Amino acid sequence: MPTYPNIKYPNFKFDVTHRASNGARLGTLTTPHGSIPTPNYIFCGTKASIKTLSPMQMKEAKTDIILSNAYHLMIQPGAELVEKMGGLHKFMQWDGPMLTDSGGFQVFSMGNPSCADEIKGTNRQKGNSLLKITEQGAEFRAYTDGRKLMLNPEISMDIQRKLGADLIVQMDECTPYQVTKDYTAKSMEMSMRWGDRSLTAFEKTHDGKQGLYGVVQGGIYEDLRKQSAEYVASRPFFGTAIGGCLGGEDDEMYGILEWCQSLNHPDRPIHFLGIGRIKDIFKAVPYGIDTFDCVMPTRIARHGSALIKGHPSEKINLLNAKYRDDPEPLDPSLDIPASRDYSKAYIHHLFKAGEALAHQIVTQHNVAVINKLMREVRMAIKNDTLDQLEKEWIPT
Amino acid sequence: MPTYPNIKYPNFKFDVTHRASNGARLGTLTTPHGSIPTPNYIFCGTKASIKTLSPMQMKEAKTDIILSNAYHLMIQPGAELVEKMGGLHKFMQWDGPMLTDSGGFQVFSMGNPSCADEIKGTNRQKGNSLLKITEQGAEFRAYTDGRKLMLNPEISMDIQRKLGADLIVQMDECTPYQVTKDYTAKSMEMSMRWGDRSLTAFEKTHDGKQGLYGVVQGGIYEDLRKQSAEYVASRPFFGTAIGGCLGGEDDEMYGILEWCQSLNHPDRPIHFLGIGRIKDIFKAVPYGIDTFDCVMPTRIARHGSALIKGHPSEKINLLNAKYRDDPEPLDPSLDIPASRDYSKAYIHHLFKAGEALAHQIVTQHNVAVINKLMREVRMAIKNDTLDQLEKEWIPT
């Protein structure tokens, strides 16, 4: 018999305010650090910083919510230090809603770098190594100094409590894509047991300041995904996260959402872990997805790619020689200097000259584009015009 | 007989508004892009960007004036491109006063890296090479792609006109420190002839939008410095710049200022090229120096050093382990988030984690500190309390 405590979240709320005929929904997600409209996008501040941007610049780009990674922070500077400094919100000067993940994804992607490659692009931390996975947890070496560390449900809950984000995530095993159904099933079952351990550990110190998400695993297998979705819905999690390595093809990924849709708890916010290209937003929202996260907008910015509404490939590469003398800004309709004032020629120059300001400008632009996308997606859900909006953003 | 044209600067003005008993002076320097109070500090935007900061962030740190380097911009993106994009102000979105240098310093420091080392700290551009110096000019290879380039007074004036900064500088030879008096004299004489060629070239296209500075050279030799100061004062330059490799010892450097002081044109702004530690400001202002420039505030920031008023060595190193759990901000009296809101512990973490935001925060802080210093220096000149202020900034 599984054991898990009963848990209430008096300071959290998720209200579905509109359901569209295509399955998409509008909502309001309330946390102790404010409410955000959904669907929404959670930007990645991996090591307690959105790379190249200050919190003010994130707000200027109309950001509602960010996340940080328990795995990176447990290694540097350590959860104890963040707690001593008043928690992650104060530490990084972000006063809005925030999420941390469990650390599991990064730990397991060491053992299966192809998993990270699938979800996030090549992402191997040099010097990382996963030493051992057992029922108890995962043992690994820190990428900074090689010291041996342990991550398991109890430790992850403790770390995430010390970090103090509003939304936190159960410890799970992120099952690789290229494994057998048998392995996937066993892994999913362990993630369920780890879910119950996460709930038990969470409940012991729960003071109402954090909301815990369960994670749906089960790989690319319909029966396993359904089983996992039912498990998460049956437990007192505040939210549902869809995780795992989601297949090699887009259709496979969206198929997984379809299988889970009717089994996810209908009154809880649903987060799609690590996914967030523009086309993914349009495809996933009709399956009831409420929040997304992905390093894409900020990562591609540092390689010179600016997201552009109406571009068939979602983005342009500012390193391309044709932008050398392009006097036009990235998107004058976005009301921030990064998008409105600098010419593409100037940003092209900054990249060619190796100037850090290039990263700042394009990162802020990409964040502003995604936030504009999410505002327009919410409006389109209300007006039942999502298909039309998709064509505006990604013409074929 | 030297030949040089008569030149007026109807859109420029320099008013000395107060002369203190110690020789320091207050003034107002007016350019087509606005007026600034002097003494003031010109921050280095070498490649058309203050490293890691946007123009808005420079303004937030109360910056009045910046510079950019003709040498770097002639190589990448090229002066023609900047002109085509509407000039440097528009290109980099800085609408305040701006200076460019002639490019000479960087070209000659290739042949004499010790010169750059003296003034700016180690600064060797890998792959650079000075091919030839003749009366005609200097031939060198671009550090980017090895193509052969020429810099001489006519070319420098043409480049600086295309860039379009308010204040521009004559082409000179930056004489190395470790050379004979004979070499220094010959070099200085060539710089004078280049000064006249600069004036002649400048005058041909002068449309009132730029003010030209002459450069005092002469190394560490009193008679040469005086000769050079007299030359610059005798020619229709808008401003006076004190250049060259200024000796190995601080006292030698300040001695040079003393020799020139009575010979510099009394009604023109005096710029001290490439010098700008906090102690230099206090030492140089009594010799009538009106503006400074140095990469120091922005460069040391990227290595983790934050300028601190009242610290005997002017700065602290945030990488030091003692800041790991320091909850205090850098300087709460500075009214910007970079100095007021983030803890030293957070900035320490960002450096340890290799996060670019560290550079942005400390760079903006250092710029704000220097701008505060200059405000306080101006107030102290007015109140005749400069010695007292120096003790507040740099206690012994």
Describe this structure as you would to a colleague.
- Two copies of one chain form a homodimer.
- By secondary structure, chain A is of the alpha/beta class.
- Chain A has two domains: 13-294, Queuine tRNA-ribosyltransferase-like (TIM Barrel, Alpha-Beta Barrel), CATH 3.20.20.105; 301-393, no CATH class.
- Helix content of chain A is 41%, strand content 18%.
- Chain A has 16 helices and 16 strands.
- Chain A has helices at 55-60, 70-75, 79-84, 88-92, 104-111, 113-120, 153-163, 181-205, 222-234, 250-261, 278-284, 296-302, 337-340, 344-352, 357-383, 386-393, and strands at 13-19, 25-31, 34-38, 40-44, 65-69, 98-101, 129-133, 138-141, 148-151, 167-169, 211-216, 239-242, 270-272, 291-293, 305-307, 315-317.
- In chain A, the strands form four sheets. The first copy, chain A, has an eight-stranded parallel beta sheet. In chain A, strands 1-2-3 form a three-stranded antiparallel beta sheet.
- In chain A, helix 5 packs across helix 6, helix 8 (181-205) packs parallel to helix 9 (222-234) and helix 12 (296-302) packs antiparallel against helix 15 (357-383).
- Chain A is globular and about 65 Å long.
- The relative contact order of chain A is 0.14.
- Residues 120-126 of chain A have low confidence and may be disordered.
- At the A-B interface, helix 14 and helix 15 of A face helix 14 and helix 15 of B.
